[in-house]
Amino acid sequence: MRAVIQRVLTSSVIIGGLPKAEIDQGLLILLGIEVSDDDVDLEWLTRKIINLRVFADEHGKMNKSVKDIGGDILLISQFTLCASTKKGNRPSFINAASPEIAKPLYQQMITSLNETLGTEIATGEFAADMKVELVNDGPVTIWMDSKSRE
After folding, report:
1. 39-51 vs 99-117: helix axis angle to the nearest 10?
2. 150 lies in a domain?
3. Domain for residue 148, yes or no?
4. pLDDT value at position 150?
5. Per-residue pLDDT averaged across 88-92, rounded?
6. 5: three-class secondary structure by DSSP
7. Catalytic residue among 6, 46, 78, 123
8. Which range of residues forms the domain containing residue 122?
9. How many domains does one find in the chain?
């Protein structure tokens, strides 16, 4: 699994011209699911996201997690994170999981983040054409790949 994690002041997602979800201070997570991903990847990534210390403590140091500050999470599925650009100029999505594999893992990630954070997260809609807005705080943007965990 690949994730782009952005510390945000606000973020929202619009689908079909209508607002779907909005969060205040917290994390916007763009999630790409690959064919080789499984429960181990999901659990590792959930743990890393919830415990990622990217929010300032009383001394201005990045020492607090989204859970520590009572922040929000907006999770957006984004298969294009699985793109390979090694050959040519057109991205290949051969490593992206099919919807039959990716959608259940995306739903499982929602459940895992809800349970680990202790509150309901906001989400986009799997495979929808979404317009995502954000005010990046910092900016702080971190890329994670569950296959690079060792």
Report:
1. 40
2. no
3. no
4. 73
5. 94
6. strand
7. 78
8. 2-143
9. 1
7 contact partners, CB below 8 Å, separation of at least 6: 26, 27, 54, 55, 136, 137, 138, 139, 140, 141
Which CATH number does the domain housing residue 115 bear? 3.50.80.10
Catalytic residue among 25, 80, 111, 119: 80
Residue type, 9: L
108 in active site: no
pLDDT > 80? residue 50:
yes
Residue 149 belongs to a domain = no
Average pLDDT over residues 133-141: 97
Q: Which two tokens stand for residue 10?
A: 């606000």
Active site residue 119: no
| DSSP-assigned states of every residue in 51-100 | H---EE-TTS-EEE-HHHHT-EEEEEE-GGGG-B-SSSSSPB-TTBPPHH
Q: Which two tokens stand for residue 32?
A: 């790409």
Burial 85-103 (b: 16+ CB within 10 A, else e): eeeeeeeeeebbbeeebbe
Active-site hit among 6, 46, 55, 79 = 79
- Is 93 catalytic? The answer is no
